[in-house]
Amino acid sequence: VGRGGNAWLGPPGCAMFTVCLQVPLDSPLGQKSPFVQHLAALAVAKAVRCTEGYEMVNIRVKWPNDIYYGSHSKMGGVLVSSTVNRDSITCYVGCGINVSNSQPTLCINDIVKVAPSKLGTSQVTSLLTPEKVIARTLNEMEFLVATFQSGCSNMVLQEYYKYWLHGGQEVTLQDYGCKALIRGLDEYGYLLAECSGKLYKLQPDGNSFDLMNNLIVTKA
């Protein structure tokens, strides 16, 4: 089950997995735990686009936890459930992305099979499998978490911006009744939106991003 009780479908060909992260509370990531879902989404995007033949597949990260092809086709998503213990946070990170299942929306392999010339890549000789995507995602996630924990959060954030959809995007903040420009993420992983010189910090768990209408609303 996804955010808001939405159901995830898992047809054959869809890469789906859950991994458990134990994060010390006094570590950089423990102090900025909203970044866990951002790191996971980035890991999925990089797992695809760092694969030979898939470099130009326009896989993007939609704030806070969706994986898109371009700006209109949802390909997958991330869901993090966390429990705070005495000195650590236990994070269960669930990820899913359409790899070779043409239904219910669109999958990665269909994109590279029908349009290699449009993507600027050669014909792919070895298509991705769900197993390969899961393995590559876990490798990327391990590297990103280690980099963040080493104090290099800015390096990770700059990598994140290469894949996300929202740089300079104008949105309507429904609760505030104003139009704002997205400026990025703050040091805790909250979305920064600027309206008339004022910065609004929007937490991932409390807001929903309607990409089609450029609208950010508080979740009921």
Automatic annotation (TrEMBL):
One of its GO terms (molecular function) is biotin--[biotin carboxyl-carrier protein] ligase activity. Keywords: Ligase. It holds the Pfam family BPL_C. Residues 1-149 form the BPL/LPL catalytic domain. GO terms for cellular component: cytoplasm. PROSITE patterns: BPL_LPL_CATALYTIC. The keyword Ion transport does not apply. This is Putative biotin protein ligase. It comes from Amblyomma sculptum. The lineage of its organism: Eukaryota, Metazoa, Ecdysozoa, Arthropoda, Chelicerata.
